[in-house]
Amino acid sequence: MRYRRFGRTGLNLSVFSLGTMRALGSPEEMQAVIEGAIAHGINHIETAAAYGASETYIGRALKALGRPTVFITTKLLPQGDANQVQRQIEQSLERLQVSRLDGVALHGLNTPEHLAWLASDGMARLRQLQAEGVIGALGFSSHGSLSVILQAIACNQFDFVNLHYTYFQQRNAPAIAAAAERDMGVFIISPADKGGQLYRPSQRLQDLCAPFHPLHWSYRWLLSQPAITTLSIGPATVAELAFPLAVADQVAPLSAAEQAVGDRLQAVMQETLGKDLCQQCYACLPCPEEIHIPEVLRLRNLAVAYEMIEFGKYRYGMFGRAGHWFPGQPANHCTDCGECLPRCPGGLEIPRLLRETHEQLKGASRSRLWQGI
Ligand code: SF4
Ligand code: SF4
User: What is the number of domains present in the chain?
Assistant: First the structure.
């Protein structure tokens, strides 16, 4: 396991962090996973008040393990007044059985309304708790637009940021760069699962990434970037730790063979999609029907080029069901109004592509708020 400085927080974190979104079935299961993670060199556990029993199970597990040295970050929603924020922090401390939180992140700073909350007395109380030493580092996670994320970074109130960012979704690249400029720590949310369900890749993706496993290649793509501190993994059992962590000591720049995979993926994307390739420029928005055109077409790009169809169904099924955690309506809401068409520099036939994507990726819908985002 390698370790990296978590930006200006000063914490030296393992390049993989234990994400505990899946609270697991019991404190004993949580204890086994934490014990295994520590044995692999992980020194950072990430949780949230909203992750069911996660904080409670972590607290019990760490006590049973004799309080090993690990950093804990929890998250709370960006809402409430000073007293409510104070109470939430006290409750997290109690559940985790600690007197101090190494990190606290605002959970889902997703909208302009959330940005406005940063001027509230609730946020002031968080800063006060940080000044008193109850909270070490202060950060935020976001599933919002790039604009909201960049504004949150630019306000300079945060020491670290938790973002979605993988080879298969590079929209947040400017946010990673902006965070690095401000010496913020960067935590990547769920690069294996939300990043492409890479633990069960399509045969096509396996072939394209050979001789590497797509999960390992994707991890390496992230670990080769010095601006990124740590990647979350969320194993359900100890047995699920060893395979992903096989690359935990590989933080060097991409080798020629690894770079060749990236070149191949890019070339195949271009060749397979042809004139229907969505370049992810986001110029087509806004859509009056609130269809997140670029995200629908990103899922289409991946489904057509790399046969990432199950992943596409998994994410597509969340449109219209997860609010600001995964914004946008299903693509069959398109009314053919044509407003987006002149804005697309590639001249894509957006309504047709949306219809095709809906047919290909519609399936069992899901809205598992904390497990699905
Ligand atoms: S044509 Fe469809 S996707 Fe484009 S702006 Fe109109 S409703 Fe939205
Ligand atoms: S404007 Fe065209 S290329 Fe750009 S994101 Fe929208 S559909 Fe894709």
Answer: 2
